[in-house]
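thought: fold this chain, then report.
action: predict
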Amino acid sequence: MPKELTPLQKIERSVITKFRKPIWSRFLEAVRKYSLIEEGDCIAVCVSGGKDSFLLAKLVQELMRHSEIPFSAKFICMNPGYNEENAERIAENARLLDIPLITYNSDIFEVTDEIGGNSPCYLCARMRRGFLYARAKELGCNKIALGHHKSDVIETTLMSMLYGGQIQGMVPKLKSKNFDGVQLIRPMYCILEDDIVHWQNYNGLKFIACACKKTAGLAEGMQGYSARQEVKKLIKNFREINPDVDSSVFKSIHNVQLDTLVGYKKGGEYFFLDKFNLED
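observation:
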């Protein structure tokens, strides 16, 4: 008679069995295609407490177990000022998922409440990122891994066009300008959010949402009105017309046709593509 699996074993097995194609294979695709994890890396996996970052932590753990490439990881969590309930939910999920979290406290929520105005999210994100870079470097890590996924990439691309008047994507890796020798990577770059939600629901897991004062009282996934929520709705509506809309937008930032554009920015400098005297 086969031995019954523990809840942790069921969760871990689901990643590489039931969700092998939409999650595990897409994770490996991003790691290989963009050379995100290399021999000797020490990666600070940043766990915010949401579904994306906790899944990222499990994926990195599984890769350490199965990969022929030796690397190490630290799992760090920055508490920006969560209420007691959300802080305990993060700790409970870390125990359930066997994630050895290193937790740091900060006053980021308090600061953004004071100086962030009506739209504190941008400031909050920048402060969190700087805090995580600093802690990663203290731990001797050369990379930090964030839980941004393919849907984030697609939504960011459309938001930049519809609201920002520019074509801007989200890259799978980049070097830090302020923390020498530290690189940011996004190993879930090829995984769609719907598949992450499916994995969460299949395993009966409950994670926190943003959890700042503006959203702490909201149900998970209900972040109120935002440009990103509007773009999510737009993409959902377009899927009824074109089921491949997600893939098309994602491919577009890998397939930029410079011959058809007027100009571009690089390093803050604008370059005008002067080719209008060319014949058709």
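thought: worth noting. Residues 217-223 have pLDDT under 50 and may be disordered.
final: tokens above.
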